[in-house]
Request: fold
Amino acid sequence: MARNQNLNKARSAKNDEFYTQLIDIENELRHYRCHFKNKVVYCNCDDPRASNFFFYFSHNFEKLGLKKLIATCYKNKDRDLHSQNDSEQAVYLEYYGDKNGNRVPDPDEIGIHKLKGDGDFRSAECIAILKQADIVVTNPPFSLFREYVAQLMEYKKKFLIMGNLNAVKYKEIFPLIKDNKVWLGVNAQSMEFGIPDNCPLAASGGRIDSSGRKYVRVNVRWFTNLKHAVRNRELALYESYDQEKYPKYDNYDAIEISKVKNIPKDYYEVMGVPISFLDKYNPKQFEIIDHIKTTIKGKAIYERILIKRKGK
Reply:
């Protein structure tokens, strides 16, 4: 709960302005390198001055074999991408790779173009840029996650984005997961995000480093429609079904599984599992049926995802 409180406090202070750490980007992106050769990557919620997504793709442009990198942000920066010089002119940046042989994205190698509007991903000119892209990679505003994913689906884009784990329960997102149109990425743990100085820290889940930079830890996941090896890894099952050990719900004909590791190896009817099951979901091994709020003998249980084993 403290993690969500941190998220909500920071969000109310400054509109979802979270900075993803480079190590988290590197740890996830290494599982998708085969997808990027000759592709146009678009980071459409990223200030290049602060975005480690832009840093990652520009510094790994040749290694990934990218065709083009584009980023859009709300505010214009001068040609020194690390300056603090702000204006209200929104811009988009284009990078076609190293030109002088030093394998570093120098400022004069990055094309900076003015936008007519404010750089909102929903604007007509940003959608026009989106249409050029093959893959979208970014950390979109959590409060606009439903709308953001809907746009990606509408324009049939491949993507790797970040969102709160609870987003899997949204009525707009769950059907996409159920139908195997969207799934979770490889890394399944909470992450630390840098936040602006004016954002408050809660009593737990936040810290300030030696340089005074603030961080909060949030229970997020990567959401994607790019294939990765972990998705087809079979979940090892060790428990045997026992009627006393696995009670049924009051409001649905399914058994309760309180922990993913307790899924029985010999049960092929409907089971209710925690949403963290999606971190290990293999569509060849399980079928997702629904998600519900449940009770057992009148006692409320955390919301569960209903699944069924395949193969029998």
Remarks:
- The chain has seven helices and 18 strands.
- Residues 233-309 form one domain.
- The helical segments are 2-14, 22-29, 52-59, 61-64, 124-132, 145-154, 174-178.
- The chain has a mean pLDDT of 86.
